[in-house]
Design goal:
By secondary structure, the protein is of the alpha/beta class. It contains 17 helices and 13 strands.
């Protein structure tokens, strides 16, 4: 084997405390890299250590900022930028993140760093002369990254991080875990698109980062009348969850509710969900490792419209009812509804309308259309595309390094 083609060490870094989607994607990618014979480690907050360990992957602990649902309702750019300066772009958080990421790099000794919504991991990689990749949904650059990214760059300058390294905030390459049909580059506002394209060498759609079981497992033909309600664990969807349960209780079908949060707050929320169900057949879990499989068995899924839960439903040909509460989720929901693969519930829709929407989605799904779209998504193997692109980058980096050493 040529020395440049030897197995690599890849460090995956994920933001996790406001959404499990980022760590889920990095876990999927790390599993695929490990299967290809590479050494991997996943750096994330202790709250998601079990998700990493369950996949049999090495975990490295890093600190993380807690959830702040308030940003979802901020449409004013100045207000959002000011809020970012107290959160993702605060000097304390950026400095602490760089410290943890540099420590993880120094301890693990990777050849490459791949990150998902950890906005300084690629900066840390650059500071150690390593190639880096970031994984981003482009729709997030419409909101909130259009305001957050400039503030992060300003904070890096404030902290004395050199321009060459600071401009790696999106890595050498930005990978989009989706199809252009669902998350097009043209959706990024022009000013933000100019900033993004000026920071990276390449923007590439690779397809969804989906676990192998969702890409290759059979699509259920006959589904029980089961409704899976999963609206995330940030706390922002709790009111919608209660409204959805109240709307579904009159449909006469079993409900499975995944709260997405564990601890004392989950017990309080579970009691509220039972009260909203008013005696209906309901199964409540704070967290499920088989949530994707549950969605695959369900007649329909009620989701907020986050990327990971949406992809799990699409890959399983499961119709969706969207209850979005952020700009990204509204964009996702609108695109899927336009394709006829789901329906959207508005915030001011009465319970009767929500119930009727659920009933319609469950009773009249176009199985052929859902199955055909699932097959299209399954053919776009994002993890395989990421693996090929990262292997190429590491090979080129090794060659460049050897040439410089001569």
């Amino acid at each position: 084997m040529n020395d440049h083609d030897r197995p690599m060490r890849a460090l995956f870094v994920a933001f996790s405390r406001s959404s499990l989607g980022h760590i889920t994607r990095m876990r999927t990618a790390a599993e695929r890299f490990a299967q290809a014979g590479h050494e991997v480690a996943v750096a994330a907050h202790a709250e998601v250590r079990d998700l990493v360990a369950k996949a049999g992957l090495p975990w490295i602990g890093i600190d993380e900022i807690g959830p702040a649902p308030a940003w979802r309702g901020m449409d004013d750019v100045a207000q959002l930028r000011a809020f970012a300066r107290t959160r993702l772009a605060s000097p304390e958080y950026v400095a602490d993140s760089l410290r943890d990421e540099l420590r993880a790099i120094d301890d693990f000794g990777p050849d490459v760093v791949v990150s998902d919504m950890r906005n300084t991991a690629s900066v840390a990689a650059s500071m150690r002369d390593l190639p880096s990749f970031t994984c981003h949904n482009l729709r997030l650059f419409r909101h909130p990254m259009h305001a957050v990214l400039p503030e992060i760059l300003a904070t890096l300058r404030q902290l004395g991080v050199g321009s060459f390294h600071a401009r790696k905030a999106l890595g050498d390459v930005l990978l989009v875990p989706d199809l252009p049909l669902l998350d097009p580059l043209s959706d990024i506002p022009a000013e933000t698109a100019g900033l993004v394209s000026g920071l990276v060498s390449e923007i590439r759609h690779i397809g969804p980062l989906a676990p192998e079981r969702l890409r290759t497992g059979p699509i259920a033909a006959d589904r029980p009348p089961l409704l899976h309600l999963t609206l995330g664990g940030s706390g922002a969807g709790d009111k919608d969850l209660l409204r959805a349960v109240a709307a579904a209780r009159g449909l006469g079908v079993p409900m499975a509710v995944t709260l997405g949060v564990e601890g004392p707050q989950s017990e309080v929320l579970a009691d509220e969900v039972r009260a909203a169900a008013a005696g209906a057949d309901i199964d409540i879990a704070a967290f499920r490792h088989d949530a994707a499989e549950l969605t695959a068995r369900a007649a329909a899924a009620v989701v907020h419209g986050g990327h990971t839960s949406m992809m799990e439903a699409l890959l399983s040909a499961t119709p969706m009812v969207f209850m979005p509460h952020s700009e990204e989720q509204r964009g996702n929901a609108a695109r899927i509804a336009s394709l006829g693969l789901g329906a959207v519930v508005e915030p001011d829709d009465p319970v009767e309308t929500v119930s009727a929407t659920m009933a319609s989605v469950m009773s009249t799904p176009d199985a052929d259309a859902h199955g055909a779209f699932a097959a299209l998504l399954r053919s776009a193997d994002g993890a395989e595309a990421m693996l090929a692109r990262v292997e190429q980058a590491v090979r080129m980096h090794r060659i460049r390094r050897d040439l410089h050493a001569r």
